């Protein structure tokens, strides 16, 4: 069986504890690899390696242009390795090869984009308001950054953090999810192949409490970028507050996908389906609250049930599959729990609602695409993130209702609007409190477009030009070129 060690200072390092844990294939349920179980000693080693790489040596000496070139080289290697990385992701997290294939191919664009951006961060010369002074600003990297990722899209969510972090000149310790560590460990080998010096990127595996928490608390870690649950995000934010350390947090959501009577009906149906059943609903941007205008509600629901009911459930490695397994056992149980919660609160199950096992289906982690109707926005199924193939359908009457219900939630990651009225599209985009609004599309992301949350969905932005500044700090330099022995007891 494959055995994975940590990756520290450019090499494979066994865990200080000497112990490993299993990782399974969510489709077959079979354990296929063992992964190093990290602890604080491993954290100390990895952070020390990253600190040494930041403070001296080849990386620290590189000019931004040279750093950028290394990232572009990495992009080429990632493109070459995309099919292998996609298979690895599917084996470990059970998502569809159709989706992971596209995702790993697209991954390269983050490294290419931020490679290009590395030498385009410019400071300013300020028109100093006193004589004899030259005042300019420059952007400097933060130091060692901790990048903590979840299991749903391990390499993509790593790229969103690592590409800008490296472009900015930082060094990193990566901590992937305990459920899906393999792809990140294979990925850091490619970083070595690209010629990025040893110690610049290190990868530690293990559990949140045992590795994640001590990594965040480590005095030499200058910043954390995290994607995951709002629970862990809050813990990380609290720990960061103790050190006055900046964070980027992406904490999921309960996004409204809003369909008006004037929408292209069939396009909206497909948009609603892609919002919740793609990726088995295991996505932070899931359109898990479907708001449908009452005049088309019944017709829309009928068509939705028809299309979702025909989805092919099964082997994620088959290009024919639409809905794969739930990635982790605790997540499977969480989804079942929320089905019961929805029923308890009075929602009406109109499709699915139970585990799926069909002929030729391996494993035991499937849940039928599930639709709840008669949902009101105060129900737990409408307020809490499930992260599974469970859709809540809520009827609304007017545009004002749609805005009120859409915004009546602690989260604010994304929102969808389906309408053929351009004025309405603009009004809704202005009024919805979410970091991303999609009109007549859903689940679109790009390396060049900023992504992040309003409200409890997080802090900071990933992707786009803003993202590099999440990993930089500004210095203001004052040079007196006409010296004077002025009165030292008043401000200069
Ligand atoms: P999690 O938030 O516990 O784990 C995400 C990462 O954080 C993992 O690498 C984990 O080891 C690490 N971690 C956990 N506690 C930590 C701590 N105190 N300090 C530092 N690192 C820590 O998420 P989990 O348990 O995998 O999934 C639970 C729920 O989170 C899901 O049901 C879903 O609702 C949500 N989730 C949201 C995601 C998103 O994209 N926003 C992605 C995955 C899960
Ligand atoms: Mg796994």
List the bound ligands. Answer: 1,4-dihydronicotinamide adenine dinucleotide, magnesium ion
Decide which structural class fits the backbone: alpha/beta
How many helical elements? Answer: 15
Query: Main sheet?
Result: 7 strands, mixed
* Strands side by side in the biggest sheet: 15-16-17-14-13-18-19
Report Rg: 24 Å
Look at the structure and give the mean pLDDT: 97
As a percent range, the share of helical residues equals: 25-40%
For this structure, what is the CATH class of the largest domain? Answer: Alpha Beta
The tally of structural domains comes to 2
Oligomeric form: single chain
SSE blueprint and pairings:
Layout: E1 2-4, E2 6-8, E3 11-13, E4 20-24, E5 31-36, H1 40-55, H2 57-61, H3 64-93, H4 97-117, E6 125-126, E7 133-141, E8 144-148, H5 154-167, E9 171-175, H6 182-193, E10 201-203, H7 208-217, E11 221-227, H8 230-243, E12 247-250, E13 256-259, H9 265-276, E14 289-293, H10 294-309, H11 329-344, E15 348-351, E16 370-373, H12 380-383, E17 390-396, H13 399-407, E18 414-418, H14 422-431, E19 436-439, E20 458-459, H15 464-469, E21 472-480
Parallel strand pairs: 1-5, 8-9, 8-11, 9-10, 11-12, 13-14, 13-18, 14-17, 16-17, 18-19
Antiparallel strand pairs: 2-3, 4-5, 6-7, 7-21, 12-20, 15-16
Helix pairs in contact: 1-7, 3-4, 3-5, 3-6, 4-5, 7-8, 9-10
The structure holds 1,4-dihydronicotinamide adenine dinucleotide and magnesium ion.
